[in-house]
Each structure stands twice: as structure tokens, then as C-alpha cells.
Automatic annotation (TrEMBL):
Domain RING-type, residue spans: 15-55
Keyword hit for Cell cycle: no
UniProt keyword list: Metal-binding, Zinc, Zinc-finger
Gene3D superfamilies the record matches: Classic Zinc Finger (3.30.160.60), Zinc/RING finger domain, C3HC4 (zinc finger) (3.30.40.10)
Pfam families for the chain: zf-C3HC4
GO molecular function: zinc ion binding
Listed InterPro entries: TRIM/RBCC, Znf_C3HC4_RING-type, Znf_RING, Znf_RING/FYVE/PHD, Znf_RING_CS
Coiled coil: none
Protein's name in the database: RING-type domain-containing protein
Source domain of life: Eukaryota
Entry annotated with the keyword Transit peptide: no
Family stated for the protein in its record: Belongs to the TRIM/RBCC family.
Amino acid sequence: MTVPNPVISNDDLSCPVCRDIFRDPVVLSCSHSFCKACLRNWWTEKRIQECPVCKRTSSRSDPTCNLVLKKLCDSVLQRRQRRTSAVSETLCSLHGENLKLFCVDHQRPVCFTWTGTYLGMK
């Protein structure tokens, strides 16, 4: 059975404290989620265990891990990392151009600008 892929925005996966994608998300009894480190820092700074969003006092000093949110965020971060790696592999590190040619002498893909520079050295 195929599960439909709902559209999820980065805002849905962002910690309200750091505004970045959740890292080790925890959930409070009020149902708000935060990065574990963000919540600890918030509580240390404020000296009171309250929700940064709704200000409700938390009875637990060690909130529960939000496993579903963690898996979702980890998946998004992995896809983002793969995309970044794929882009960096297809662009010339010197010129930022697509690697569309292959240099037989150096046995590596090269861009047009590198080819022109290399041919001028011969």
C-alpha cells in the first residue's frame, strides 16, 4: 500500500527556538517540540522549566524524545546532504562550472574553463 507524500514545509520541521531543522527533538506535555539542546539552554537561561512557546510549566526535567519527528528530520537532513554532495561532485571546485569534459592526461572530469587554461599551459 502506497502512503501519500504530504507536502511538509521547513517551518513544520523547524525548532521554534533556533529556527533550524530539529536535532534530537523532544516533546513537552503541551505537545510543543524543540531540539533537546535548545530546550536545555532555554531552561538554563530562564531558570524555569516552561515551554518557550506557550509558557506552560513542564513537570518533567527530561522530556520525551519525539521519535517520529526525529526520523522525519533525519531523513530530510540526509536528503539535503546527498543533494549537496551530488552538486559538489558535478561542479568544478575552481570555477564552479559543470564538469562536462574528461581529461585523459589527468583521468578526471573537467570544465570548459579548466580545459582552456590547461591547453594554454602546453
